[in-house]
Task: structure prediction
Amino acid sequence: MLDLKWIRENPAHLDAALKRRGAAAVSAHVIELDTAHRATITELQSLQSRRNDVSKQIGGVKAKGGDAAPLMAEVAQIKDRMTALEAQEKEQAEKVRGVLLTIPNVLHADVPEGADETGNVELHKWGTPRKFDFAVKDHADIGAALKLMDFDQAAVMSGARFVILKGALARLERAIAQFMLDTHTDENGYTEVNPPLLVKDTALIGTGQLPKFAEDLYRTNVDAWLIPTSEVPLTNLVAERIVDGAELPMRVTAFTPCFRSEAGSAGRDTKGMIRNHQFEKVELVSICAPEESEAEHQRMTHCAEKILQRLELPYRALALCAGDMGFGMMRTYDLEVWLPSQETYREISSCSNAGDFQARRMNARYRPVGETKGTRFVHTLNGSGLAVGRTLVAILENYQEADGSVRIPTVLQRYMGGKDRITAS
RNA sequence: GGAGAGGUGGCAGAGUGGUCGAUUGUACCGCACUCGAAAUGCGGCGUGCCUGCAAGGGCACCGUGGGUUCGAAUCCCACCCUCUCCGCCA
Result:
């Protein structure tokens, strides 16, 4: 959510920022609603002030045994007007907030121009895609041949876009997650968190998925939603809180399942486990002071890159362009891993700086060290570190051998009982 | 799921219809005393918003949302959360 005061003072700036995203101007509309709202507040408050005065006088008059009837008549009149204004004020406030909640974050000045993913800018590449002297298979075929990956039976019980992993592949997924968590906690300074997977709508409004993107989420029959990413519970660790500045930066990580309805992506990535309704991800979230967030964003991205490097998976880093940026983010770097079967790089991590956008929505503040009064909104950042399912896919494809077996990356072998290869049994 | 207790300012803890936005303690900040510190004394110390060039003025907030009333932290209703006990359960 953007600062209404800021919008009031920088309407042209806002509309220009929206235009970069390909979104329509809203400042005139917002300011119109806000002006009307404030006019109502002003009138209402002067009536309240008068009512309070008269009510006090009534108390005084009655205490002395006088006749308070004329005063009470005046209050009655004021009340009629107030009732109408109160309803109007409430309606206007909801309208303003409703619009504010649908305005995307203002982009960082360095975000490249562009209408869609073709406008993304490659920052650097790491590693060299392996040359295969046999026909490469995609991960779904590799998994099927190993008899350790079953989409058909998953469809029987759950429908499309689900997978069942078995044996060494189930363990491999666990190994990948464990390796990531260990690296982030032991080396990168993150604290492991095991958060709720069901959250209230307020939590999703806080991170920006609601109210606009409800159709992407799974809603339960109780008043809760399945998380689409642990960014939601991790960022909400500071919701409605005032944290001590000394606690910042707060770095947390979690390994959780993620649930996405994938509405609107029918036909895309239908084969395999690239785009499932349920997948596992290790998430990184940082809560920090505003002046730290730029550096923290770079740091977080490096933490994610380190995982790919340790796994020796070729990847490239991109700066997302204006048109491809997520709703709540001011700046995003994507990491894309090389997939031999597609002969292209595919997203495996997305690291973003939300600035104070989410903090405003969830009222997450901090008290700067040394200051006894006054609070400021924190900055929030999140990044995949990494998507575990897609990492499994990348390993299967990049480490496949002609005989159908798959080598296990060195750093994962200790998590795989010392094995260095997965073979059909 | 049942029964009970409770949600008030950073914390603790008063306050059951009218100068209560809120007693007091503690923490914190400033000043005094001191060589310095402790102790002590004095003063200050919540948040959001409206209005105003400013000084200032005003409104709201005692879990949340409604209601009663001229007037609500105080009365009524609903809901949420926490704690204790019972039941059920991985």
